Each structure stands twice: as C-alpha cells, then as structure tokens.
Amino acid sequence: MRIVFLGPPGAGKGTQAQRLKDYLKVAHLSTGEMLRDAGEAGTLLGQEAARYMNAGKLVPDDVVVGIVADRIQSADCLRGCLFDGFPRTVPQAEALDRMLADCDKPLDVVLALDVAEPQLVNRLLARGRLDDDLETIRERFRQYHELTQPLLDYYRSRGVLREIDAEGTPDEVFGRIRGAIKAVHT
User: Fold this and answer.
1) 20 to 30 Å CA-CA from 55: which of 19, 20, 69, 174?
2) What band does 186 get if pLDDT is binned at 50, 70 and 90?
C-alpha cells in the first residue's frame, strides 16, 4: 500500500505513522529524514537540499520530488510506503502521482487526521517544547491550513481522501485508521 499521511501540528501523526508502519510492514518515508539522509550521502540532490536547509530555507519542490523519486525505488518500498511530510503542496502531490503512475503503483489512500484546533493548541502547549509557544503554534496552524487545504481538496477530488477523527486515545484513533485502511484494501 502507498499511503499519504496528513495532519496539523499536534494531531498525533508521529505516533500514528509509526503504528501504521509497523501494522502494515511498509517503509515510513519522512521527508525530513530523507532530506537529511540525502545530504549525508552526498548525492547531488542531497547537497543541494543541504544548502537550503543549512541556510534555514525551504527546499524547493523539484529537489524534494527528486529525493522522494530516488527513495521510492529502494527495496524496502516494494511492499509499499507511508509518506509523512510529503507532499506539502499540490504541485508535489501531482509529481507524486506521476512518479507512482510511472512505476504502476498508484496511491491507495490519503489519511487526514482531524482534531479541533483548541484541542491541538492544548496538546502542543502540554508538550512543553521550546518552540511550542502560542504565537508559534498559531503561525504553524496558519501555514498548515494555507498549504494543506488545497491538498485535501485535491485528494478529495481524486477519491482517495479519508478523514480520520483523531480525537480520543491513541488506541481509539489507530482503530479508526485501521478501519479506513481495511475499507480501502478490501
């Protein structure tokens, strides 16, 4: 299975992505890790990505897409993969669709974790991270909504979006995720 995992800051993406990866026995492709790994490997795309990251800038779509394209060719992706942090924009989503179509392995489902924003703010403030002050949290939500709403619309129009109620215990949320996966996989 090939799955895109979306959700706002504090929705539990990290916890649920790890559980889903173990449940499905697929590769977990975190964009941040892929960019760091490519930089450490010294590939041309990795070096270019490192230049942007070291300057505190966003890595351009074409570089991110190139790194993802290389990564999905790895042996551990043969059974499928879980995309976490990619795509972030509609052009990246379109590029992913083309990449997967080229290998005749289309995207199976997009799981979008949904939690009310006040609960997310409380979760993030409770984590106690230095970068989780109220102003920073609000800006992260603004960016998430600006970038992600078009993605939700894009995937909804393609019929692969499944919105998951991510309020409740981690076990309850994972039960809903498993239900969505089973509905798609049968």
Assistant:
1) 69
2) low
Both tokens assigned to 133: 């002050």
User: In this structure, what token pair is assigned to residue 1?
Assistant: 């299975």
> Can 138 be counted among the known catalytic residues?
no
**CA 56, CA 38: separation in Å to the nearest integer?**
17
Is 162 a catalytic site residue?
no
Q: Is 169 left (phi over 0), alpha (psi -120 to 50) or beta?
A: beta
Name the catalytic one among 13, 21, 71, 162: 13
Q: Is 129 a catalytic residue?
A: yes
Upstream peptide bond of 87 is cis (omega within 30 degrees of 0):
yes
The amino acid at residue 106 is: P
Is residue 131 predicted with pLDDT exceeding 80? no
Kindly list the distances between the CA atom of residue 90 and the CA atoms of 3, 49, 69, in Å, as whole numbers in the listed order: 16, 20, 16
36 catalytic? Reply is no
Specify whether the CB–CB gap between 39 and 46 falls below 8 A. yes
Active site residue 13: yes
For residues 86 and 175, what is the distance between their CA atoms, to the nearest angstrom? 23
